[in-house]
Design goal:
This protein is of the alpha+beta class. It has helices spanning about 15-25, 40-45, 50-60, 115-120, 170-180, 195-200; strands at about 65-70, 75, 100-110, 130-140, 140-150, 185-195, 210-220, 225-235. A hairpin with a 2-residue loop joins β4 (about 130-140) and β5 (about 140-150). The longest helix has 14 residues, at about 15-25. GO terms for molecular function: DNA binding; DNA-binding transcription factor activity.
Length: about 240
């Protein structure tokens, strides 16, 4: 039954249901990638018509919270970050084919959280974090340098994992090794000149302009899981948007 203490009676019934389903998703009643109950089950559980359930789910789909797989059901949507950086940076072969960078963990340390990392991850002063320095390479040449910070307590399974076993994608690793699922992220873009250390990593001349993409990644309950800064040459940067 719809929880009348939580429902806004001014809203249509399907939006009241949408709000309560969204709240259950945020509370991790169903994990990303997990199926939610069928329309018939939700109809019976909340004591509303199937048509109301269908409209509520369609609203959740339009908002990107769930997705429907034909013949299988409706699932809490897993955030897809595999190619998110490559909205901003273009890496191509000489004949114009898109190239997917490979990832290399250059270093991994457990350190006291720098101020920015502690603030982004909502950690107390002097908390410990895992600091990863990762390079993305195309044809063996470095194109992106990333500084990644994780709460050492929450990600302790990674503290002793061999860097060569991290793989190209970190978020599946977080889920597999630590049981932590990234559900959303917030990114901020700025431009700065590369430092001497970053220039050496990226094979750039000192003071070359670089684009910095700062990302905070969150769990479905809104808790920050990861803070990272990715840097790449501004000459490789692109931005496109469709405006209607």
């Amino acid at each position: 039954m719809l929880d009348q203490n939580r429902a806004d009676a001014r809203l249509p019934l399907y939006l009241q249901l949408r709000d309560q389903l969204a709240a259950q998703i945020r509370a991790q009643k169903w994990q990303p990638g997990q199926a939610i109950p069928s329309e018939a089950e939700l109809s019976q559980s909340f004591q509303v018509a199937v048509g109301t359930v269908r409209r509520a789910i369609e609203t959740l789909m339009s908002e990107g919270l769930v997705e429907r797989t034909h013949g299988r059901g409706t699932f809490v949507r897993k955030a897809r970050f595999d190619n998110s950086l490559f909205r901003f940076f273009r890496f191509e072969s000489p004949d114009g084919r898109p190239l997917a960078p490979k990832s290399v963990i250059v270093s991994r340390k457990v350190i006291e959280a720098p101020r920015q990392a502690a603030e982004a991850l909502h950690l107390k002063a002097h908390a410990r974090v895992i600091e990863l320095l990762r390079l993305r390479k195309v044809d063996g040449q470095p194109v992106l340098a990333e500084n990644i910070y994780l709460c050492a307590q929450r990600f302790k399974a990674l503290a002793d994992k061999a860097p060569e076993d991290f793989g190209d994608l970190l978020y599946p690793l977080y889920e597999r090794e630590c049981g932590l699922i990234v559900a959303s992220a917030r990114e901020t873009l700025t431009v700065e000149t590369v430092t001497a250390a970053q220039a050496r990593l990226l094979g750039l001349k000192e003071k070359t302009p670089v684009v910095v993409i700062e990302r905070v990644a969150f769990a479905s309950d809104g808790a920050p899981l990861e803070w990272r800064q990715s840097r790449g040459a501004a000459s490789k940067f692109r931005y496109s948007a469709e405006i209607r």
